[in-house]
Amino acid sequence: MTNGFLCNRREMLKSAAGMGLAGLLSSGPLRPESKARSERRFKIGVCGWMLKSQTGPQLLEIAQRLGLDGVQLGMPYVEDGCPLLKPEVQQSYLAKARELKMGIAGVALSALSRVPYKSDPRAQQWVADSIAISRALKTRVVLVPFFGQAADLKNDPKGTAVVIDRFKEIASQAEKAGVILGIESWLNAEEHMAILDKVGSPAVQVYYDMGNSHKMGYDIYKEIRFLGSHISEFHAKDYDGLFGKGTIDFAEVRRAMDDIHYRGWIQIESGANEEEIGANGRYLRSQFSS
What are 220-233's pLDDT values in tens digits? Predict the structure, then answer.
């Protein structure tokens, strides 16, 4: 696994997080959601890009209709930049969230699938943008993805070294903003942990996609327990069917989350249509009631 020095170093980072960044992140609900919803240990959201029938703040209406707690917003970049950087767009989402008493469940830097963090000079500015957007939308976690042939970190030590250096450069900015950058990739738990150890900031963690990791053949239940407090958030996904009918044992996922004392969002990224997303949400609610 790792040597004693790294384990001790992780404990030091945990302590730093507890006194600094984590204190900011646990200072109370930032999202404009109802008191009952904000007090839930687990919040069930959906990735906005899964709701193909609608875009913009109306995504929150669909999530509400499906019985969910909120929406994770993607960060696309178009010719004139990222729409979520515009204050009027940010305000439209915040207003809709207040109206519906729903949560804006974080943002995902989806554009990095075509502008790889490890090789494209634009990417660092985009990560800086994501921190500003997350803060403006009163969210706490930014998903930083590493998917697609040009962005994948698996078996790419040179690319991984660049990513580590870039995270080191941007980490203090995230810490000051009270934002966590969550790495989502095809790497296993130990490979992810090696990156976190080298970056050395509580503002850089792992965004754990249980479906992707299971697809790679990793023991996701052991990985969740191994990564522990270094997991920023979860994607719920099963490539083999609706939740409860596929190959992910969500009861064991719940036990693993209990073991690491996880509290926060579980985002649904599985389902061919709104009906299936709703069914997956109801199943998660049955397994993750507080």
Answer: 999 999 999 999 99
Contact between residue 208 and residue 230 where contact means Cβ atoms under 8 Å apart: no
Domain boundaries 4-25+41-287, CATH class: alpha beta
Reported residue count of the chain is 290
Q: What is the dihedral of CA 138, 140, 141, 142, to 10 degrees?
A: 40
Pairing relation of β-strands 231-236 and 103-108? Answer: unpaired
Give Cα 222 distance to the centre of its chain. 19
Please check whether residue 242 is in contact with residue 272, taking contact to mean a CB–CB distance below 8 angstroms: no
Q: Which two tokens stand for residue 274?
A: 């709104």
Helix (H) or strand (E) holding 135: helix 123-136
CA 228 to chain centre: 15
Rounded distance, CA 275 to CA 188, Å? Answer: 32
CB contact at 8 A, 185 and 192:
yes
- DSSP assignments along 26-84, one per residue: TSS--S---HHHHT-SEEEEEEGGG-TT--TTHHHHHHHHTT-SEEEEE---BTTB-GG
Contact 178, 68 (CB under 8 A): no
Give the phi and the psi of residue 41 in degrees, each rounded to 5.
-70, -45
pLDDT tens for each residue of 121-148: 999 999 999 999 999 999 999 999 999 9
With 70 as the cut, is the pLDDT of residue 77 above it?
yes
Domain ranges of the chain: 4-25+41-287
pTM: 0.89
Token pair, residue 68, equals 């969910």
CA distances from residue 226 to 17, 220, 286 in whole angstroms, order as listed? 18, 10, 25
**SS3 of 180, please?**
strand
- Report residue 101's pLDDT band, with 50, 70 and 90 as the boundaries: very high
